[in-house]
């Protein structure tokens, strides 16, 4: 289910790592929410956070946020 949620990964000169932002969960989690020394590590950490958030929402009986969908021009 986590595949429907997107993430933004950018290099941070200040932190010297890739930081992860979860636009769909911006209202419930501090941004950026995780990071990684490599791009792939950041992706893996981002996916783990998304999966944890989905589990938390389900455990608390909350509705998941609507995923943002890219609309091609």
From TrEMBL:
It comes from the Bacteria. InterPro entries: TA_system_antitoxin, TTHA1013/TTHA0281-like. This is Type II toxin-antitoxin system HicB family antitoxin. It comes from Phormidesmis priestleyi ULC007.
């Amino acid at each position: 289910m986590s595949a429907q949620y997107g993430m933004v990964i950018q290099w941070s000169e200040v932190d010297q790592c890739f930081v992860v932002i979860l636009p769909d969960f911006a209202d419930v989690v501090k941004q950026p929410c995780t990071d990684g020394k490599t791009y792939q590590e950041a992706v893996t950490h981002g996916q783990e956070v998304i999966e944890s958030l989905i589990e938390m929402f389900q455990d608390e009986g909350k509705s998941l946020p609507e995923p943002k969908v890219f609309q091609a021009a």
